[in-house]
Amino acid sequence: MSGRLSRPERRALQKQDEHFLRLPLDPGPDPRSMGAHLRHVVRLLQNSRSASPCSDAVAYLTALYERSLPPFEGIACRKGCSHCCTQPVSITAAEAMFVAAALKDRPDRAAALLDYEQLSRTVPAAELGRRYCPLLVEDACSIYAARPLACHSFVSTSLDACIAAFDRGEEPQIPMPADGVNLLYVCRMMLMAALRLVGADDGAYELTPAVAAALNAPDAERRFLAGEYVFAPAGPGERPPPAYDQAIQEMAAFVYPTL
Ligand code: SF4
User: Fold this and answer.
1) H or E, element range at 34
2) Among the residues of the chain, which ranges form H helices?
3) What is the CA radius of gyration of the chain?
4) Please, are residues 134 and 112 in contact by the beta-carbon 8 Å criterion?
5) Most exposed residue of 71, 81, 83, 230, measured as fewest CB within 10 angstroms of its CB?
6) In terms of Cα–Cα distance, which of 51, 27, 29 is closest to 37?
7) Ligand 1 centre from 79 Cα, in Å?
8) CB–CB of 117/214 below 8 Å?
9) Ligand 1 centroid to 25 CA: how many Å?
10) For 114-127, how does the pLDDT look when each residue is reduced to its tens digit (9 = 90+)?
């Protein structure tokens, strides 16, 4: 699709989107499903009447991810099992905004996260002891509904492999359902494409410094969506590998003329 759409083309596309938005995401070669959901995510990010457009967009993509997953068997993950919450978590700035918004109801956890961030800046990693996500409370995620996409999709079929990797420090070899991993990549790339389309920072950051930056910056979400770089304290945003970057660019280019 090259130039902008005419009014009848736009109406036809809207009808087509209504169909695809009711369905799970189809990550196959036909781009219409991806296009419909990506347009919707862009509109959510552009909704100036929302208290947190990033939360709406990330929550939509997370729910889409969940309802698009094929059924898995043999999943080892259970409530109260938190071995994997010892790893760094890579998130987009929009997810950091979602977590920061969720922490408004959990000031104790927001304070714990800011304390941990401060501590990790001043105390060498070797002296900090075993690392746990500061949002973990009694082996449960305190922001479960708002946890990042990477946490949603970290699904293991072997508890032994998790214990070996995260408790004994062996080389991580976690067996995960491949379909879930692929779907995560597609949803994450869609989020990055949506951020590009609205002119916001689409880099990836580590969870703790990114959420701390979102909590500390005044009026962070509005400034972030206006294209301001508010995540400098979290370090330079990581760029996706070239092949993913190209795929994100293609998604954005496919949808751009239809917005
Ligand atoms: S955000 Fe929640 S699920 Fe993710 S690492 Fe932290 S405690 Fe675990």
Assistant:
1) helix 32-45
2) 7-22, 32-45, 53-68, 93-102, 107-122, 125-128, 149-153, 159-162, 178-197, 207-216, 220-225, 242-255
3) 19
4) yes
5) 71
6) 27
7) 12
8) no
9) 25
10) 999 998 888 777 67
* 183 close to ligand 1 (CB < 6 Angstrom): no
pTM of the full predicted structure?
A: 0.93
Rounded CA-CA distance 77/153 in Å is 11
CA distance linking residue 213 with residue 76, whole number of Å = 34
Q: Going along the chain, which residue ranges are E strands?
A: 90-92, 136-137, 140-141, 204-206
Q: Which two tokens stand for residue 257?
A: 């003329």
Q: How far is the CA of 250 from the centre of ligand 1 (A)?
A: 31
From first CA to last CA, the distance across the chain in angstroms is: 12
**CB of residue 147 inside a 6 A radius of ligand 1:** yes
pLDDT in tens, 64-121: 999 999 888 889 999 899 999 988 899 999 999 999 999 998 999 999 999 999 988 8
Taking the CA atoms of 153, 140, 62 and 111 in sequence, report the sign of the dihedral they define: negative
